[in-house]
Amino acid sequence: MANTQQEHNNGLKLTLAWLFVGIPLAWGVIETLLHSLKLFE
Amino acid sequence: MSFFDKSRTVAPPGYSRWLIPPAALCVDLCIGQAYAFSVFNLPMTKLIGITKSAPGDWLLTDLGWIFSLAIFFLGVSSAIFGRWVEENGPRKAMFTAACLWGGGFIISSIGAYIHNIWLIYIGYGVVGGFALGIGYISPVSTLIKWFPDRPGMATGMAIMGFGGGAFIASPLSVWLMAQFSTPTHVGVAETFIALGVIYFCFMSVGSIIVRIPAPGWKPEGWTAPAQPKKLVTTNNVYVYQALRTPQFWLIWWVLCLNVTAGIGVLGQASAMIQEIFPGKVTVIAASGFVGLMSLFNMGGRYCWATLSDYIGRKNTYAVFFVLGTILYILVPQTGEAGSVAAFVICFLIIISMYGGGFSTVPAYLRDMFGTQYVGAIHGLLLTAWSMAGIFGPVLVNYIRQYNVTHGVAKAQAYNTTMYVMAVLLVIGFFCNLAVRAVNKRHHMTAQQEAQAAA
C-alpha cells in the first residue's frame, strides 16, 4: 500500500518536473523551427 | 543554511533518478540565455536615441565585450570553483548560481537604467560569468553518479539544455522588450529585471529538486560490469592529480580543437552563407540557417552523447574528427558547385558534432578519472572552451580578411579557413588516438577516497 502511494507521488513529481522544463523548451524549439523555415522560402 | 548542505541532499529511498535531469535543465536552460545575449545588442545601442543611435549611445564594439567577458569568466569560475562545487554538493552550487545569475541581471538593469556600461560588464560579464561557470558544472557529477549505466545520455541531456536556453531566451527577451518599451523608452532595464527574477525562481526550483544518491546506491537491476572496459576506470583520481596526467591534457586539446572548428563558423554562419552563395541566399534565409544550426547544435548534444554510451567516448570523438575533416574538405566544393543544400547539410552535421563534443566530454572524463572529482576536473577542462572561443573566431575572421584584401573573391574567401579547420581536426584525431587508461599511480587510495567522501 505504502509502495503504491510512493509510486503515485513519484509519478506526479516526475510529470510536474518534466512539464516545468519541457513546456518552455518545446515552445522555444517550435519558435526556432518556424524561424528556420525561412531558409526554405 | 543547512537546507543547502550536501548532507541534506541525499536522496531518500524510492527517490526517482529521473527527477535529476529536469533539475539540471532548470539551471542549464536559464544560463543558456548567454547564447541569446546578442538580442540586446541593437536595443542597447539606442538607449539614448530610442529610435536610432544618438551621440553618447553605446557602440556595438563596446557591447561585444559583455558576452566575451561572460564566457571568459565562465572558464575562470569553473576552473576555480570546480572543487568547491564537488565538495559542497549540487544544491548549494545551483542556488549560488541562481543568486549570481539573477543578481547579475539586476546589476545590469541598473547599468542600463543609468547608462553605465561598466555596471553591465560587472553585472552580466563578471557576476553572470561566475554564475555560468558554477551553474554549468554543478549538475554534471550528480548526473553521472545517478546514471552510471548511461552517463553520456544523462550529461548530454543537461548540456543540451545549455544549448536550448537561447531558444527560450531569444523570443522571451524580444517579447518582454516589446511589453516594456514606450515611445520614449527602450525597455532593456525592465527586461533585465524581469529575466533576473524569472531565472532566479526557475533555477531555485532546480536546486530544491536536486538530490545526490546515497552512498553505494545503484540503479535497480544494474550491476557494474565484472570486466570493466579498457578505457573505463572504477578508480578515482584527485582533481589536481588529474592535471599531472597526459590524459587530461590530451582531452583538453581534443575539446579545444573540436570546439575551435565549430565555434568560428557558428558566429559567422549568416555572413558566410550569404557571401559563398551571393544572390542565392537572402538575409532572411541566412537567419533561418542560423536557427537550424542552433537546433542541430542542441540535438547533437543529446544524440552524440547518448551514442557514446554504446560505442565509447574515444570512438565518438574519432567519428567527430574523421567525419569533420571530410566535411570541412567538402565545404569549398559545395560552394564551387553552387549547392546550397549540400553546404547546409555539411554544416548541420559539423555543428551537431560541435555540440556533441561538449556533452560527451564529461563522460569521457568520468571514464578516465572516476566519478569522485569529475565535476571539478570538468571545470578545469572548460578552460579549453575559453581558448577555443578566441582561436575559432580569430581564425575564421582573419583568414577571410587576409584573403579578401589579397584579391580573393568573397565566395572563395572561406576556403582556406575550411582547410585549416580540417587540419586542426586531424591534429585532434591524433590527440584522441593517444588517449590511454590513466596510470594506476595516479589513482586515489581507499583511505583518500574515504577521507574525501567524509
How would you describe this protein?
- The complex is a heterodimer of chains A (41) and B (454).
- Chain A has 41 residues and is an all-alpha fold.
- Chain A has 1 helix and no strands.
- Chain A is rod-shaped, with a radius of gyration of 18 Å.
- The N and C termini of chain A lie far apart (58 Å).
- The relative contact order of chain A is 0.08.
- Chain B is mostly helical and 454 residues long.
- Chain B is 72% helix and 0% strand.
- Chain B has 17 helices and no strands.
- Chain B has helices at residues 20-31, 41-44, 60-88, 90-114, 117-137, 140-146, 151-180, 188-209, 239-242, 246-276, 283-311, 313-337, 340-369, 374-381, 383-405, 415-433, 446-453.
- In chain B, α4 packs antiparallel against α5 (117-137) and α12 packs antiparallel against α13.
- Chain B is globular, with a radius of gyration of 22 Å.
- The model of chain B has no long low-confidence stretch (mean pLDDT 91).
